[in-house]
Design goal:
single chain, 362 residues, alpha/beta, Enolase-like, domain 1, TIM Barrel, 17 strands, globular, binds magnesium ion
Length: 362
């Protein structure tokens, strides 16, 4: 079976409420979908969101990278020779991690379909379900308390809160959330907002208030590995590296320097499933538990992340609420989201049957 054509399309899904972080505000998911067509009518699918603030990629850059570099490197190649395909993607262009991830996910989808196996089983997994946290959107404390009660009522037991802009208001917000959910696991994400010493002080204040924070994601600037190391050594809250860790090489640096207690694997940062597997392997060696995360993504690429997480025991935490934040799901098949539980079917590949409302770009 040969890859005959690479098609790109835009997928749009509205969010229930605008998504705010220390870096940006977004009201809808608008992602690039990749379709790899073959000589045997099997289609492989992948997806990439434009997350300029994190990966530097836009709709324009993702589509150009795929149409001009990554796609042409695959057309005419045999699906059965996975390692060749992965090497061709890697060599096709420097950087562009989300564009590469989208195509790579489509290649793994094709390969697993050609083997007749769901991807998680191809990767060695034996359990087809997991539980995700849910992000409580940043708002005034009363609204956040109400949203928290809502989430707990829906069965969520782990909450993720974005913090950063205003430490004293963050403290009020988190206190309101903790009061509304005394038993929930609460993790926070500062998205690079703090200076190292400031971070330690803020986290000490939070724990002194009895907030019982499970972990903090990316307290300091992505490139400030020394700062990250300082916070990890001095903070009462365990630290997770997110924006500081894109590639497997970054992961090794973080782990060797003990710059974080945990790492957050995202397919869009590392460039796809094979690099995610390399990071997981390093994490197994260093005994560093991983979270699987996503950007604001619809269900194609998040389904790939679910397959990966189901296959790797070292991935102990799941932050895959992207599809749950959308008010409509244009993707048929794939992972089944029901509250905090995400389940895979035994369909081969990613298990995606089709996507409605796509606007094709080529
Ligand atoms: Mg994060």
């Amino acid at each position: 079976m040969k890859i005959t054509q690479v098609r790109l399309a835009l997928l749009t899904a509205p969010l229930r409420v605008p998504f705010r972080t220390a870096l940006r505000e977004v009201s809808k998911v608008e992602d690039i979908v990749v379709e790899l067509h073959t000589s045997e009518s099997i289609v492989g699918r992948g997806e990439a969101p434009p997350t300029a603030a994190v990966t530097g990629e836009t709709i324009g850059s993702i589509s150009s990278a795929i149409l001009e570099h990554i796609g042409p490197a695959l057309v005419g190649k045999n699906v059965e020779h996975l390692d060749n395909l992965l090497a061709a993607i890697d060599r096709s262009i420097v950087g562009n991690s989300s564009a590469k991830a989208a195509v790579e996910i489509a290649v793994w989808d094709l390969y697993a379909q050609s083997c007749g196996l769901p991807l998680y089983r191809l990767l060695g997994g034996g359990i087809n379900h997991l539980e995700t946290d849910i992000t409580i959107s940043v708002n005034d404390p009363e609204t956040m308390a109400k949203d928290t009660e809502d989430a707990v009522r829906k069965g969520y037991s782990t909450l993720k809160i974005k913090v950063g802009e205003n430490p004293s208001l963050d403290l009020e917000r988190l206190s309101a959330v903790r009061k509304a959910a005394p038993d929930a696991v609460i993790r926070i994400d500062a998205n690079q907002a703090w200076k190292p010493r400031q971070a330690v002080q803020i986290l000490e204040n939070m724990q002194a208030e009895g907030l019982n924070i499970e972990l903090v994601e990316q307290p300091v600037k992505a490139r400030d590995i020394e700062g990250l190391e300082f916070v990890t050594a001095n903070s009462p809250v365990p630290v997770m590296a997110d924006e500081s860790m894109f590639s497997p090489q970054d992961a090794l640096t973080v782990m060797q320097r003990h710059a974080a207690d945990f790492v957050n694997i995202k397919l869009m940062k590392c460039g796809g499933i094979s690099n995610a597997l390399r990071i997981a392997a390093a994490a197994e060696i260093y005994g560093v538990e991983c979270m699987i995360g996503c950007m604001l993504e619809a269900k194609v690429s998040v389904t790939a992340a679910v397959h990966l997480a189901c296959a790797k025991n070292i991935i102990t935490r799941v932050d895959l609420d992207g599809p749950a934040l959308c008010s409509a799901d244009p993707v048929a098949g794939g992972a089944i989201f029901s509250g905090k539980r995400i389940e895979l079917t035994e369909a081969s590949g990613l298990g995606i049957d089709g996507i409605s409302g796509l606007r094709y770009l080529n």
